[in-house]
Amino acid sequence: MPSSSHIIEKLEKTHHYKTFLYLALAGIGLMFLTIVCVLLFNIHQNSISIHFLPKAFAISTVLLITCSYFLLPILQHAKDEFIGYVRSILLKLIVLGSLFILFQGIGWCELIAHGITFTSKVPVTLLYVLSGLHALHFIGGFIYAIVLYTQVRKAMKDPVKQLIWQTNPFQKLKLELLVIYWHFMDLLWVVLFLIFFLSF
Questions:
Q1: Which helix H or strand E contains 179, and what residues bound it?
Q2: Domain residues of the chain, as ranges?
Q3: For residues 76 and 65, what is the distance between their CA atoms, to the nearest angstrom?
Q4: I need a surface site. Which of 89, 106, 150, 199 has the fewest CB within 10 A?
Q5: Other CB atoms within 10 Å distance of the CB of residue 72
């Protein structure tokens, strides 16, 4: 078991950007945990069940799991200075991320088509709130992925910029921040989907 001094030393060596991200994710996780607790409490108290979950939500879950799979080797490729592979993975991420956002919208349309609207019923309202909040946070990471892809693409057009990108540790840090945030968003959605599936 690591000593407290070892943990403190490790924290001191962590880049402040990464520390800020961890704190932000802790706050996001706490917010979602609170809303989920309210959702489960209301379902238990009122015995509400809509007996329907959009198929689009299941498809979007598969899309995010696929995203995480493609994202796994990106840091190693960046370390090995394989910038072409990094660009390819980011492009796949953007395509799959776009499909995820699309299927989230389709999922909400499916709910509305079945008469499950943003109503005064707390559990149904929280279903929209949770999926909507996740979509907003996901879009933040999605935009960041587009920015990184644009930067990598520009760097590949100029040998000097490409060399700078490959040898600059900060570029690898930016990719690491994306990986941490994206995996967190993926895991968060999988947990939410399982809760929706078991509760509704």
A1: helix 169-199
A2: 55-199
A3: 19
A4: 150
A5: 11
pLDDT digits (tens, 9 = 90+) for 134-160: 999 999 999 999 999 999 999 888 888
Record the tokens describing residue 164, joined without a space.
């700078």
Tokens representing residue 12 in the block? 């001191």
Question: pTM score, two decimals?
Answer: 0.87
Q: What is the DSSP string of 55-122?
A: HHHHHHHHHHHHHHHHHTTHHHHHHTT-HHHHHHHHHHHHHHHHHHHHHHHHHHHHHHHTT--S-S-H
pLDDT tens profile 105-125: 999 999 999 888 877 678 888
Minimal CA–CA distance to 148: which of 187, 179, 117? 179
Give CA–CA dist 67/24, Å, rounded.
22
CATH number of 55-199: 1.20.120.80
Q: Which two tokens stand for residue 9?
A: 């030393």
d(CA 43, CA 108): 20
